[in-house]
Recover the amino acids of this structure.
């Protein structure tokens, strides 16, 4: 069965196609009476008319759709960003198109397949390399990046983790811990580890303590647990682990338990990001909480500003995370 068109409605309602277009797109006109508007809407409903969303978007110059680029569909951390942003943009009458992006090598193919013409703007979480590439080659679409990893070449909302890391490591030292290791995945260390690794080293050195890194192949629970078990088998002193993120801390928790270590009596454990599961672990996980709701709200505000004024100066905001002590430390 052929789709119902505005021409069909115009013929059945005995009006012009231009009148149907004005009515169905809620355009004001003193030449169209309320009775005519009601007749057109009733006929559209009876005929089962469905508007062509692409055509409407083209006519209006906007799609009411926002792209969201994140690193992983498996990580609770990124799913919480997805949930928060979906709530925010939906409240304002927009919807999300979500795409995964993990490496710069994937960037070109993802950008070729991503429906750029179908979104009014993009929010990118923790993928500065992709943002840089986008800014060089596809910069016509408004974009804001946010998270602990970001590019300053476009609008950004940064999650500052130096403060929280310093608070966490100093807390451990203040509780008498001396053999404090950083658990980090090799890929993250390969790009410098960011603020967390730098802040950990700085606090350890200022306290006269020797930094130590436990390398995990990835951020997966299993790899983090294996790395911790291997470290414990060396027999060297270890009384605290600061984990690059909470996902790795969950794996570390398993590794410590498998080795018969108690938390915090034998080894204190601290994560980063304050994902939902952190408070429900046994024992509840000490972590660095990011102001996720504020980060997302600020990014959405910046993107709305950029969509309205494409030529405005770069917008930026930096929001700090803070240490949340719980029973694991």
């Amino acid at each position: 069965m052929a789709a119902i068109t505005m021409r069909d409605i115009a013929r059945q309602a005995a009006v012009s196609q231009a009148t149907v277009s004005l009515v169905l797109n809620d355009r004001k006109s003193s030449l169209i009476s309320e009775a005519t508007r009601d007749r057109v809407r009733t006929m559209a409903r009876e005929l089962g008319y469905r508007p062509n969303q692409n055509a409407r978007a083209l006519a209006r110059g906007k799609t009411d759709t926002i792209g969201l680029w994140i690193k992983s569909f498996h990580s609770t951390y990124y799913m919480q960003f997805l949930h928060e942003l979906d709530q925010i943009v939906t409240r304002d009458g927009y919807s999300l198109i979500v795409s995964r992006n993990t490496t710069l090598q994937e960037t070109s193919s993802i950008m070729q397949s991503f429906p750029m013409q179908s979104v009014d703007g993009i929010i990118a979480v923790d993928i500065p390399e992709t943002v840089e590439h986008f800014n060089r080659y596809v910069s016509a679409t408004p974009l804001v990046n946010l998270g602990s990893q970001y590019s300053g070449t476009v609008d950004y909302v940064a999650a500052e983790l130096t403060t929280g890391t310093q608070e966490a490591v100093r807390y451990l030292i203040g509780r008498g811990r001396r053999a404090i290791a950083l658990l980090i995945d090799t890929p993250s260390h390969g790009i410098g580890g960011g603020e967390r690794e730098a802040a950990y080293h700085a606090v350890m050195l200022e306290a006269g303590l020797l930094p130590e890194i436990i390398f995990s192949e990835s951020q997966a629970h299993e790899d983090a647990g294996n790395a911790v078990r291997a470290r414990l088998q060396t027999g060297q002193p270890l009384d605290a682990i600061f984990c690059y993120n909470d996902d790795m801390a969950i794996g570390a928790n398993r590794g410590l338990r498998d080795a018969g270590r108690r938390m915090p009596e034998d080894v204190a454990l601290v994560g980063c990001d304050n994902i939902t599961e952190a408070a429900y672990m046994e024992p509840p996980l000490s972590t660095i909480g990011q102001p996720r709701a504020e980060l997302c709200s600020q990014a959405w505000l910046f993107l709305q500003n950029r969509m309205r004024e494409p030529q405005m100066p770069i917008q930026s905001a930096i929001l700090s995370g803070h240490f949340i002590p719980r029973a694991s430390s």
Remarks:
- The longest strand covers residues 65-70.
- The chain has three domains: 6-51, 65-160+292-322, 162-289.
